[in-house]
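For the sake of transparency, this paper describes our internal protein records without simplification. The remainder of this section carries one protein's record, kept here as part of the documentation:
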Amino acid sequence: MEGFHKMQDDLERVIEKEDTSSTVTTGSDCEETLKHGPLTVRQRLDAIIHSHKFQVGIIVLVVFDILLVLSELLFDLEIVRLEGSHQETVPEVLHYCSIFILSLFLIEIGLRIFVMRLSFFTHKLELFDAIVVIVSFVLDVVFRNRQDAASGVGLLVILRLWRVARILNGIVLSVKRQAEKKIEREKHMHEACEQELTKFRSYCTSLESEIESCTDSSSSTGFSIRRRSRNGQ
């Protein structure tokens, strides 16, 4: 009975030790989280720019801008004609809407340069995107009159069609970002499982050592009892 009570006490001590170590581990994780501190402005902007919703918004704006440009070109080439005052007003409204969207793209490029810094200039797709947006914006401002736009209509069409690359770029970045997040989650789960496995291995090792010690003590106790009984006989 004494050996059994001793084994029970040892098991309770082992469990308390494991609980204490788990608490310490949790505390250290919290301390590590606190060490990182709050997110900076660049980190928050990076999370927003590379988010799936942001990429979808950019793609929608690109498609809408292409539709605006194509509609404007239909009016410039007089393929579609309007009557009365709408003949001048509608193309002008479309043109200024396109300039507004290009202004949003310029702000986006500025934010990307602020977030990525020098690494921005190492990404070919990002550079290509920035060049197309800047050149398109300059041409839209220069050719803001329909008479001027007629002379550069070919260049405008080519540049605007090139901007389809923004759609592909946005899709690639969005898919890549989602894959990176999934891989990061899997890594964290793997590390957590490894820690749990190590903890339970040490726990099993402690139990095995306790069982061996209890077995040895019970064997020696049984041997002494048998020896006393023989002496009594």
